[in-house]
Amino acid sequence: KAIVFVFQELRDDMPSILADVFCILDIETGCLEEKHKRDHFTQLVGACLICVPDGMLKERLDPETLESLGLIKQAQQFNQKIVKIKTKLFYKQQKFNLLREENEGYAKLIAELGQDLMGNLTSHLVLENIKSLIGCFNLDPNRVLDIILEVYECRSEHDEFFIPLIKSYMCEHQTLCHMLGFKFKFHQEPNGETPSSLYHIAAALLQHNLIALEDLYVHLLPLDSSIVEEHKREILEAKQIARKLTMVLVPSEKTEDKEKEKEKEEEKNEKPPDNQKLGLLEALLRIGDWQHAQSIMDQMPAFYATSHKAIAIALCQLLHLIVEPLYRRAAVPKGAKGGLMTPLRNKQALRPAESFDDLSRGVFAMLCYLGPHMSHDPILFAKVVRLGKSFMKEYQNESRQDTKDKMDSLLSCFLSTADQVLLPSLSLMECNACMSEELWGFFKLFPYQHRYRLYGQWKNETYGNHPLLVKIKAQTVDRAKYIMKRLTKENVKPSGRQIGKLSHSNPTILFDYILSQIQWYDNLISPVVDSLKYLTSLNYDVLAYCIIEALANPEKEKMKHDDTTISSWLQSLASLCGAVFRKYPIELAGLLQYVTNQLKAGKSFDLLILKEVVQKMAGIEITDEMTVEQLEAMTGGEQLKAEGGYFGQIRNTKKSSQRLKDALLDHELALPLCLLMAQQRNGVVFSEGGEKHLKLVGKLYDQCHDTLVQFGGFLASNLSTEDYIKRVPSVDVLCNQFHTPHDAAFFLSRPMYAHQILSKYDELKKAEKGSRQQQKVHKYIAACEQIMAPVHEAVVSLHLPRVWDDLRPQFYATFWSLTMYDLAVPHNAYDREVNKLKIQIKAIDENTEMPLNKKKKEKERCTALQDKLQEEEKKQLEHVQRVLHRLKLEKDNWLLAKSTKNETITKFLQLCIFPRCVFSAIDAVYCARFVELVHQQKTPNFCTLLCYDRVFSDIIYTVASCTENESRRYGRFLCCMLETVTRWHSDRAIYEKECGNYPGFLTIFRASGFDGGNKADQLDYENFRHVVHKWHYKLTKASVHCLETGEYTHIRNILIVLTKILPWYPKVLNLGQALECRVHKICQEEKEKRPDLYALAMGYSGQLKGRKVHMVPENEFHHKEQPVRSATPGTLQNGPGNTGKPAAAASAGKAEEGAVEDSGSKEKEDKEKTTKEKKEKKDKNPGSTPEAKAGGKDKQKEEKPTDSKEKTPKADKDKRKDDKKEEKSKIDGKSAEKEWSKERDLSNDSKTKEGSKVEKNAGAGSMKSLVPRSEGVENQTKRFKHPTHQLNGNCRPSVMRNHFLHTFTNALVFQESRHDKEKSEKKRDSTGAKEEKKQYPLMP
């Protein structure tokens, strides 16, 4: 009892809880077999009878348990009593039957409910009358409620009357719900149709919470499981349709499929069973009850409900009403009126949106449920798009960051709406260009990253989420195939219209197919580009995305299967990019960023795209196959370049180049692209090209380099001075911080210097108006000094301090900062283009078919262009005169030559000429002309002879280390150098005028410098001809060596170089014959193995045969017999009047080494005389040079009267054998490095032997080390022999090793090491070894 009392104190409802517990225990113990547990339960319940009422236990316990407790007498009787009571309550009809009810009461009830409700009648008054009728006529209350619902159904527009009436009349929600359920079930017959009024009253009752949705939902058909099955079936059917459209069917299968489709259509035409759930959903949306509508839609598969047009339209109508106030306030375009919409009178409906924040209350959710089916209401589509546009403008104009952060959630909602609603809806709209343009007005406010992500979702995911879109995708592909099969150049216009119509709705699918076709068939590019003119702005943007996605496809290999060339699909897409982006106003940012990202990742394949885009959009063409006329035009101004510098004159590039420039500047991509390309050149070789074929690596390097040159040219010609200077850092920053190669750094900085100098010059001119020409030149020089002074300081950090012992930073900066535009005016090119325009004007005048207006316009255009060219020529002429005057003043301080002339030339070639001559075709010409200019300016300490000798003497390593395009440029450089040399060689008068009194042709150097009047110190004309012949021989020897290596790169490059220098080499008949035979052998060997080498060799061979008529015998090229001179020691001593001629003779004799043949007895006699003469010279003139000694030997040789013009066949044959053995022993089975090592060792041996016999002079000693010599040694008198002999083995091994790190040092090292070998061999010969006479490479 105490426990029970405690229980009662705990809770008031304790008896009920205990009764529930006993009920559960009763069920559990009744199932047990152990009787004692049942007994224990009975005792427990009996003990608790004092706290649990009997009635409560009788409600919840089994009759048998109650009987055992003694609460009832018999369980059976108790059960019978329960059945009777239930029957009486639920099944026995009340006494309110028709006999007792009076019909008059129902008639009055109907009359009461059907009266006019417009007056002062209220639901309260009517309810009182109804109560009176029920009481007076004994009416059944449930039947009265049913009649009220029936009348409400007939008068469903009077919600405000019937809802309060029903709410006041009834108290049980379940009763009302059962009545409605009974009404719905009545219409669930096979052909039954539920009236819309019933849906309306059910929706109204739900909205006012008079019934619960879950109670009514169970009365509706069809079942949810049936709906899910139907949805799955729709998806399956859509996929089958899509599969059939992509399959190729034979005619018999097509007819069978058509019959099946007809049967299915007939089945569909049969009336489907009524979907009461969707009907109720539509009614809920009509009255604005979004909460209950959302609950019903959640019970169904995604977008199943809105896939029914009635539901979609109802939801669209609701959205109209909600967004109307905000749309009117913020998004109506100027000039648009639009019809006002009547808001819902229902107070329970969602409130209309007044601000953008209100949209998040339910509008975005509704839009997401609507999905692609907004296509049913284009007006709502336009409203939502305009709201988004208005929001984006507010977002972009918002300056406060906290407010902007709050708006970010709304921004993400608009992006989701665009992804899930707007784009899918556009796919279902048939050819609606206006909606596409409207949507672009919204999308263009997003950055391209957001837009491209939306397009990616649209293309790759959206079409798989909806059965309708699956069908649409298949139909679009099918239609695209139909159009593309028939697209040609002739039917571009009609096909373009069809493509335009198809693209308005489904651009991603259409472009994906078109791009796939272009990747296979590149001849489609031109007609496709022309047919895209009917696209909308949105479609163009989607096209850009599709192109980038196609380029980035990871499943596509960017190399062909042979791994030596770039895949054709990538080349086709690159060509398409250039054409499309030039012709149509497509945003370039995404494509440029893609290329930048690929470069960041160390991939250079996609530079092909940038190259095409710049070429097509800016009209800047990069090719090494320029004609001489084009190259000449490229040295002029911008107008001349555009008219005569390119193969295809690309006109009207002003707008497209402006778009490209704006894209680069707006997204800050100009400098990053330049730096990445400059860095990627080495990356191609050392990082990217690790496992790639050498041929492909060379092509990628060339592509990277060419694109850099092209892109840098575009920036220089299109960016304003301020933009360029602001973006390009100084040259030392480029090299030291960004690790840009020096040639690329100066290439980027060069336009900046030119801009700054001109700006400063204009500023100085304006400060003092009316100044004379001479004063203008001084102002220009002052401007140059001000601008270039910081550059001179900056370049010092680029190289080691010892470099500046020979080259002044001023000279280095001047060389790298100037261009061909600064050195010479291409008068011929200007005249050529002006004459072309005059011919055009004449042709226009003579054309009688051309309309007068067009004639006038064309003539005006040609005349204006002619004036521009003439003005440009005049401007360039003035500029060149100023530059040459500046160089004339600077030249005395260019070269210090603290070490030797040889070392000065080495540094000049290594740091200036070689890096720049392979940078571009224009730079190749510039380098040759600059060398000539330095010579013409009579620059102190510059030896022209030595410079040309170092360039021509051995080109093997230089050629071998070039890529294909670099070979062309190097060949062009050699061609220009040979052109100059050939001009001097051709005429004594020209030689005397341009070289006779110039310090570059001195053969003796004195500490006092060049006095300009000592003719004996100069190399005379005939000896110069000997030197030129030696250079031709050296070129032949190097060429044959490269052709005989069998290496692909060597053969290809030397053939390219030989083709380039063909106008000036070979000029000697026997050298040409040797080359011809070797090239013929290459043609035979490579015909089947390497077709590209065969094509090159055949091309060169044909051109070489055509040049045979211009070749001359050796004795006409130079006089082989030298004039006899005294061999007395006195003639070889240093002196003011007698030193030049012997030295010249010595150099000439050395040049002919290997070309003179003597008998064995004569050779011995020559050796004895030479040894004797050397001893005398050593005694007479201890300070004389080894070169003079060698000259004496050669001179004695020349005094022997030998007939070297005609060689006997036998001797010729023997010489050929000897020479072949020599060449074979050098090449066969050895790498270049081994050969170099061997030659270096021989050089060291020869120097060791020679050291004991000959006293080293200042000139020779200084070449043993690149470290500057002391002043005492430098001030000694130095004698200069023929330039070849300055190349004897005097470079340290460290320099040799470094040549592998710098490409062009190879040539210098190879030259010197080979001369070392020659010298050591000569030394062995003089000590009694059998002499192997050198000879030109002979015909096999």
Shape: elongated
Quote the average pLDDT. 77
The whole-angstrom Rg is 50 Å
Spatial separation of the terminal alpha carbons:
133 Å
Subcellular location: Nucleus
Region (Disordered): 252-275, 1119-1293, 1309-1340
InterPro entries: Tho2, THO_THOC2_C, THO_THOC2_N, THOC2_N
GO molecular function: mRNA binding
Could you characterize the architecture of this molecule?
This protein has 1340 residues and is an all-alpha fold. Among the domains are: 2-91, no CATH class; 304-435, no CATH class; 823-890. It has 64 helices and 2 strands. Strands 1-2 form a two-stranded antiparallel ribbon. α14 (224-246) runs parallel beside α24 and α25 (492-505) crosses α26. The longest helix is centred in the middle third of the chain and has 39 residues, at 852-890. It is elongated and about 155 Å long. Residues 1007-1013 and 1122-1340 have low confidence and may be disordered.
Search tags:
single chain, THO complex subunit 2, mainly alpha, 1340 residues, nucleus, THO_THOC2_C, Tho2, elongated, mRNA binding, two-stranded antiparallel ribbon
SSE map:
Blueprint: H1 2-10, H2 14-30, H3 35-47, H4 54-60, H5 63-69, H6 75-91, H7 103-113, H8 123-137, H9 141-154, H10 159-169, H11 173-186, H12 196-207, H13 213-217, H14 224-246, H15 251-269, H16 276-287, H17 290-298, H18 309-330, H19 363-370, H20 378-397, H21 401-428, H22 433-443, H23 448-460, H24 467-485, H25 492-505, H26 507-520, H27 525-531, H28 537-551, H29 568-583, H30 589-600, H31 607-618, H32 628-633, H33 638-644, H34 654-666, H35 670-688, H36 694-718, H37 721-727, H38 731-736, H39 742-767, H40 773-795, H41 809-817, H42 820-823, H43 827-846, H44 852-890, H45 901-917, H46 921-936, H47 944-952, H48 956-960, H49 964-986, H50 988-994, E1 1004-1005, H51 1021-1044, H52 1048-1060, H53 1069-1089, H54 1091-1106, H55 1114-1117, H56 1140-1151, H57 1160-1180, H58 1186-1199, H59 1209-1227, H60 1232-1253, H61 1258-1261, H62 1271-1274, E2 1278-1279, H63 1293-1298, H64 1305-1326
Helix pairs in contact: 2-3, 5-6, 7-8, 7-9, 8-10, 9-10, 9-12, 12-16, 14-24, 16-17, 16-18, 18-19, 18-20, 19-21, 20-21, 20-22, 21-23, 24-25, 24-26, 25-26, 25-27, 26-28, 26-29, 29-31, 30-35, 31-36, 35-36, 36-39, 39-40, 40-41, 43-44, 45-46, 45-47, 46-49, 49-50, 49-52, 51-52, 51-53, 51-56, 52-54, ...
